[in-house]
Each structure stands twice: as C-alpha cells, then as structure tokens.
Task: structure prediction
Amino acid sequence: MANEVRLTKEGFERLKAELEQLKGSERLRIAEAIREAKSHGDLRENAAYHEAKLNQARLEQRIAELEKAVQVAKVVEVEEGEHSSARLGSKVMLLDLEFDDEFEVLLVGSFEADATQGHISITSPLGEALLGKEEGSEIEVSAPGGTTRYRVKGISG
Result:
C-alpha cells in the first residue's frame, strides 16, 4: 500500500464504518462460528472449523488493511456544483461513441473504487484519461479488450 491513500470524504466515512462493523459484529459472528465448530468434536477432520478459521484470518487481514488505510488516508475535499475539469470526486457523464450509450462515473481513489457502483479509480485507464478533461472533450481508453472512445457530456461535484 502506498504511503498515502486518497479518498473522498464519503469514501473515508464508508471505510471507517466498514472497519467498525468488521471489528464488532463480524468478529463476534466468526468467533461464534468457531465455537460452534469446536463443539462438533475432532478438529483434524472438521471442515466447519477449518472454514471458520480461514474466515477469521481473512477478516483480520481486512481489518489490518483498513486500519492502515485510515491511518494514512488523505481526505480530498470536493466542492459541490459545476466544475470545468474532471478531478477526484467529480461525477462525469460519458457517451460511449461506439455504442451511443451514456453513463455516469464517479472518480475516486483506488482504495474506494468499485466499478459495479460506477466508482472509477483515478489510477485506472479510464480514470487517468478523464483527469483534467473538460466537457466536450473526447478521450480514448486502451484496455485489454481494445480501445474505446468516449465524449465527456458533463462534469459535476
């Protein structure tokens, strides 16, 4: 992990909420699963016990990762309203020039990226191509599936 994790204020709050939930109710749930599995006897051939211990290790790894991110996080304040160029925290409306399809993305730091939610990292090929672009700009994004062209239709907050 880099020395600095750039996050929007909302991303930082989500990170802290996830950390709190993992350290509280999720730890308790896994501890109960381990206790339950232990009560079934021989641990050498107890698949439920081994699964619960694996889940515990994954949980502790995620907690450590989140704690480190919270420590080194740099929250980037995003002003609401219209902006002339895309930057961290910007909502960008794009037009796919090949398929004539419009969609919106939110430019975020790599730690809070989630393409299924439209949260695109500023370090991804699309995010990097959008940084600093203004409404009306056309960009080309090279990805493993080929090159795609987009037009920036609007930028806000």
In short: The chain is about 40% helix and 25% strand.
